[in-house]
Write a structure and sequence with these properties.
Elements: H1 4-7, E1 27-28, E2 31-32, H2 35-51, H3 62-69, E3 77-82, E4 88-93, E5 96-101, E6 107-112, E7 116-124, E8 127-136, E9 156-157, E10 161-162, E11 169-171, E12 177-186, E13 190-199, E14 203-213, E15 218-227, E16 235-239, E17 244-250, E18 255-258, E19 261-264, E20 276-278, E21 281-285, E22 291-292, E23 297-306, E24 311-319, E25 325-329, E26 334-336, E27 345-346
Helix pairs in contact: 2-3
Length: 350
Amino acid sequence: MSSPCRNGGGSHEGASQLCHTRGYSGQLGGELLSTQEIKLAAIADAIRAKEGSSAPIPANDFASRILALKGKSEFAVPLIASAEEGAVITATNGEEIVTGTTGADQQAILLLEKPGEWTINAQLGDAVRGPKTVEVKSGYEVAFSFAESILPEGYTEVKYIESGSNQYIALPVSSYLSKVDLSAYMNSSGWLLGYGDYSTSNGHSIFGIQHYSSTTANQIRFHRAKRSPNASGQELIVPIDSNDVDIFADFVNGQFRVNGTDYTATLTNPTTSKTWYAFAQDYGIAGRMEAKYQINMKLKHMKIFSRYDALLYDFVPGIDSSGVAGLYDLVNNKFYKSATSTPFVAGPEV
């Protein structure tokens, strides 16, 4: 069988333009085109469609012409459209229009060269189908980690757990906690950690870390004070310019650090001890425990020490085997979920 490249001249009507021959309609010199010649003709058509050109393309130029197309767009997503043979498929995104015709396999492959919403229509003769829409993303992300999880089997480590306005964790330690090391992102005012012992007759004691935010101030407040009915207690107020904080607080020695900056303050010692709450303050009145001033916060990690430097808690955000988010304590091998019916929200896996 003769190749259209070897047969040379002659003008033939048809959609394909291969080599220097203007086109052909399925036969050439009385011979049927081979499957390979049909595929070459399709390649030439595709090159011209991408270039916006119409002149014949010598077969020897295919490689260079295809390589030149690579510079036209750094983005290309193939769309496979299915319809009866001969249907014209049109994809539109703003001023960008891409067309193709389904072949014998009843498919057309269109290259969509920009992200966003594309409108797809199909036409076969006078019949029109569509529109259908396809959302093309600008890219995808995938992450891998070869680090061994520090949580035991059955738990999945996550980057943080997030509270709203109705979650907290009660820490079963009724003693003075001296040192706290934590990282968090705060979305509202409220208590990161703390307790209070309130009494209308004897004043009250408060202890912990508070975020205070208003139109005129954004602060971290460290409390360690015995308040009386006639005298206010003491607190250290640290202005912050970011709600993403790394905090270290040594309440015994009066040493505090916020985002790498050190502060010193001598705070009075409360006379009573209470159970601490995380994500809230234990607002106790007459011995009653009550969570108040909950904070909307993403907690990334937290360690709590006793006044004698013993590590009491080493909290890692995680998810248990039931998919419930909470904090896993590496010291006591215990998982803490929200003390309310409202669960924490888990961040992405580590």
